C-alpha cells in the first residue's frame, strides 16, 4: 500500500477501492440525517444523489481517461487552471473534505460500537472511540502494513455482502410488499423543497468516494478505459446497496425512530428485525466498514497532500521529524481529523464536508468546461448540467443551515476564506 506501481490495480480492484471507500460512513452515518430532512422519501433521495453524482463523475471520467494519473483531482485542476490559487485552494478543499470524512467515519465507529453496551448516545465514549480508531489507523499506515492493501478487496466484499444480507433480511422479516416502496403522500407536506435538496446534498457525500479512483488512475490497468468503467460500476453498486438498505430501514422503523437514532439507525433497525443477533451482525459490519474506510482514506489523503507538497502548491514544515513527506502528512492529517472528531458531532461534520466538496466539485466542472472541453472531447451541456446541479444543491443546503445551524456555515466560510487567502499568499511568496 505504500508503493505506487503503474498498472498494478485491476478493474475489479479499482471497483473494490471505490465501493470500499463509499460504503462506509456513507450509509451508516448519513442515512438517518437524510431521513430527517426528507421523511419517507429518503430511499429515493439516495437515487437522486446517485444521478447527480453521475453527472459530476462525467468531468472526472473524461479527464482521467485522457490523462490517467496518480495526481487525480490535483492533476485535473492543474491542467485546467495551471499552477494558480484556484488549483491549490480547490485541491486543499478536497483534501479537507476527505479529512472531514475520516472524522465522520471515526465518530460513526464510536456510535455503532457503543450499541453493544448500555451507554448513552451522547457519551464521551463516542469521540474517545473515534480518536482511538484514528490513532490506530495512523500506526498501521505509518508502519507500512502491506496486509491492508492485500485485504482491501476482501473487506469491500464483506461490507457489501453483509449490508445486502441485512437489507434483504430486514425486508423479509418486515413482511415487505411493493406498496411499502411508495412513500406516504402526506409526508410531502411536512418538508420544504429546500429540505429535500438539503437531503440530496448529504446523500452526495455517500457517493463522493468515487473520486478516490481518479487518484489511482496511473495504477489501474488499461487506464484510458478502466478508470471510467470502475467509477460507473462503483456508483451503480452503491446505488443498489443504498436503496435496498434505505427501504429495509424504512420498513422496520418509523421516521421518528430513524431520526431519534440517526447516528446508528441501521443498528436500531436490526433490533426489531433480528433481535440481538441482528444487532451484533450489523454493528460488526459497521465496525469492519469504518475501520477499513478510515485506514484507506488516511492513506489516500496523505498521498494527495504529499503530492501537493511536491507540486509546491502547499507549504510544508518537517518540525524536526525524519522520514518522507507522506509520513509527515499522515501525522498532520490525523491530528486535524482528531480535532474535528472531538469538537464536532456527526451532523456538523457531514455538513461542513458537503459544503467543501460541492464548491471543489463546481470548480472542477467549470475548469473542464472552460479549458479542457475540446481537449478531452467532453460534452459541454453535461458539464454545465453538473455545475448547475451542484450549485442548486449547495444554495438550498446553505439556506437550510443558515436557518437551523448558522455555526456550520460560519465555520465553513471561515475555512474557505482561509484556504484561498492562505494559498494566494503562499504562491505569491514562492514566486518571489
Automatic annotation (TrEMBL):
InterPro entries recorded: AA/rel_permease1, APC_superfamily
User: Is the keyword Membrane assigned to this protein?
Assistant: yes
Mark the transmembrane ranges.
12-35, 41-61, 81-100, 124-142, 154-173, 193-210, 231-259, 279-301, 329-346, 352-369, 381-400, 406-427
Renumbered to this chain, the signal peptide range is none
The membrane-topology field of this record reads: Multi-pass membrane protein
Q: Which UniProt keywords apply?
A: Cell membrane, Membrane, Transmembrane, Transmembrane helix
Where are the annotated coiled coils located?
A: none
**Main localization (coarse):** membrane
Listed GO MF terms: transmembrane transporter activity
Subcellular location(s): the record lists:
Cell membrane
Q: Which domain of life is it from?
A: Bacteria
What cellular component terms from Gene Ontology apply here?
Answer: plasma membrane
This one is known as APC family permease
